[in-house]
């Protein structure tokens, strides 16, 4: 059974640490910090570019030789307000000090020194609806293809109402055949409201050589190396996820699963 479901290490410090080596792929890294007010953290970016996403809470951040001040606003991710984020290029460093309890995502992919450090959001990030009926969900695009902030990273937040499906109709982006489809590895960082709930994520290929269905709980991460990857939020439990994607080309092109292609 593939090890696609990653449960947090604990409740404090770096609770997720997913690297290309540990995931068995080439591009995407994802880490998550859960810190208390007044704590500090610092890292060098090395060969990767980074987007720091203030999922919850506030922190004073310095990066790439600049003081960015205090970033963060929402104290609970399900407030759905636009996130405060910071792009940090490769071969630099960053450091932060939390001013409240905070949950901070560290999104990573190969850097090419093509972009300068910059704040992303909350301006120009607007919660938008995608889909309809029981396929309705709401998107905060942080750094998708039309935003030229990054060398490799594609990052977005998705809120799925209770009882709805998301990342659906089922689709895949696991071949490098642009413009028909692009190869993009992907992580899903899941949150549930209420936090003691659960959601469902399936990862499967058309030939079912990969065919995994997982119950995801608050704080879990699912790795999607290939195949289709729909999510379901049961009645009574709202689902959030933060997507991080990267591959050889910074473009999101996908192909639907044949049984649901007519729903696209």
Please describe what this structure looks like.
- The protein has 264 residues and is an all-beta fold.
- It has a single domain, classed as Jelly Rolls (Sandwich), CATH 2.60.120.10.
- 2% of the residues lie in helices and 49% in strands.
- The chain contains one helix and 25 strands.
- It has one helix at residues 20-23; strands spanning 5-6, 13-18, 29-35, 40-44, 48-56, 59-63, 66-71, 85-88, 93-98, 102-110, 118-120, 128-130, 137-143, 154-160, 165-166, 171-172, 174-177, 181-183, 185-193, 198-204, 211-217, 221-224, 231-232, 238-246, 255-256.
- Strands 1-22-19-24-14-13-12 form a seven-stranded antiparallel β-sheet, with no helix packed on it.
- Strand 12 (128-130) and strand 13 form a beta hairpin.
- The radius of gyration is 17 Å and the shape is globular.
- It starts with a strand and ends in an 8-residue tail after the last strand.
- 44% of the residues are buried.
- The model has no long low-confidence stretch (mean pLDDT 96).
Discrete helix count: 1
- The CATH architecture designation is Sandwich
Q: Strand pairing plus helix content: what structural class?
A: mainly beta
Low-confidence stretches: none
Identify the overall geometry: globular
Helix percent band: under 10%
Gyration radius, rounded: 17 Å
Tally the structural domains.
1
Determine the mean pLDDT: 96
């Amino acid at each position: 059974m593939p090890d696609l479901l990653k449960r947090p290490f604990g409740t404090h410090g770096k609770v997720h640490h997913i690297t290309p080596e540990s995931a068995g792929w080439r591009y995407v890294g994802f880490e998550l910090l859960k810190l208390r007010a007044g704590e500090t953290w610092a890292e060098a970016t090395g060969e990767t570019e980074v987007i720091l996403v203030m999922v919850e809470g506030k922190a004073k951040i310095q990066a790439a030789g600049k003081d960015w001040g205090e970033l963060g606003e929402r104290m609970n991710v399900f407030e759905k307000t636009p996130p405060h984020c910071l792009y940090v290029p490769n071969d630099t460093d960053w450091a932060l000090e939390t001013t409240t309890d905070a949950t901070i995502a560290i999104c990573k992919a190969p850097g090419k020194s093509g972009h300068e450090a910059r704040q992303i959001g909350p301006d120009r990030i607007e919660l938008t609806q995608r889909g309809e009926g029981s396929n309705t969900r709401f998107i905060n695009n942080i750094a998708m293809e039309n935003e030229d902030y990054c060398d490799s990273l594609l990052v977005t937040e998705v809120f799925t109402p209770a009882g709805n499906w998301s990342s659906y109709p089922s689709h895949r982006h696991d071949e490098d055949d642009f413009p028909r489809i692009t190869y993009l590895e992907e992580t899903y960082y899941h949150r549930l409201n209420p936090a003691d709930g659960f959601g469902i994520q399936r990862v499967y290929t058309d030939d079912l050589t990969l065919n995994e269905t997982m119950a995801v709980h608050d704080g879990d991460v699912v790795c999607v190396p290939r195949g289709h990857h729909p999510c379901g939020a049961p009645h009574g439990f709202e689902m959030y996820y933060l997507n991080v994607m990267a591959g050889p080309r910074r473009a999101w092109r996908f192909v639907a699963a044949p049984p649901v292609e007519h729903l696209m």
